[in-house]
Amino acid sequence: MPRRPGLRTFVLALALATVAVAPEAVPRVAESPASAPAVAAETDAPAPEIGRNSFSLMVGLYTTSFWARSFSVNEVGYEPNFVIALISGRDLITTPVGLRVGHESGIALRFGKDFSIEMWRAVTVSFGARLIGRIMVTPQLALGLSSVSNLIGVEVAREAAVENGDMSRLVYNGSQLAWLFENIPFIEFFYRLHHRSGALGFWGNVPDGHNANSIGFQIRY
Fold first, then answer.
1. In this predicted structure, what is the pLDDT of residue 24?
2. Residue 165: pLDDT band by 50, 70, 90 thresholds?
3. Half-sphere exposure of 44 (CA within 13 A, CB side)
4. Which fold, 53-220?
5. What is the three-class DSSP state of 76?
6. How big is the chain by its Cα radius of gyration, in Å?
7. Contacts of residue 94, Cβ cutoff 8 Å, sequence gap at least 6
8. Which of 44, 50, 136, 189 is the most exposed place for a label (fewest CB within 10 A)?
9. pTM for this one?
10. 128 and 108 Cβ atoms separated by less than 8 Å
11. DSSP codes joined into one string, 22-41
């Protein structure tokens, strides 16, 4: 009768099995965790895409002062006449540095103590630059010709004060400062000195015309 495996055989088999299933003696190199995406250095974002066309609504109050003095909004006298205007503009030339050249057409109701209608056409030159953070500031100058249906306010006295004065047609000057938030670049808010001028007597034989401190908003598309 065959002999059963003895204790030695059993111990030897158990030892071989233990060696077979034991983990490798060579230490395992720990896997490096997945690298987190590097934090991108904060850089200036590119300037937003601003539409070439614009449509503006503007409201203002006429001053009794001349052009240069009218910029001091809190230090001028005001007459009881207001202006509300619609302005359509288009930039014909744009540059990567923010310089733009275009034109605008405007029509305004001048009302209050008196009533009149004004229309103008002007060439526009503007320059957009980032001022603080995500705010872009754009100074603009509009220069052209303005016509009115009849004179109001200080225009009447200024025309009568000179010989052969004619203020029905004058030089138009719109000195504007606009700003927008770069995350909504299709809306601009602006201040404009709405100015009709005789260009120091060059046009209409009058030194100055009429000035209105105005604010408004502009939609770009």
1. 45
2. confident
3. 10
4. Porin (2.40.160)
5. coil
6. 38
7. 52, 100
8. 44
9. 0.76
10. no
11. SPPSSPPPPPPPPPPPPPPP
Residue type, 144: G
Nearest CA to 118 among 141, 145, 146, 77? 146
Question: Are the C-beta atoms of residues 65 and 74 closer than 8 Å to each other?
Answer: no
- Amino acid, res. 55: F
Secondary structure class of 74 (helix, strand, coil) = helix
Task: Return the residue matching tokens 């009768």.
Answer: 1
In the chain, where the domains are located: 53-220
Phi then psi dihedrals of residue 151, to 5 deg = -80, 150
The tokens describing 9, both together, are 């055989």
* Residue 14, H or E segment: helix 7-21
Distance set, CA 198 to CA 18, 99, 217 (Å): 108, 28, 28
CA 218 to chain centre: 9
Q: How far apart are CA 220 and CA 56, in angstroms?
A: 9
pLDDT at 41: 39
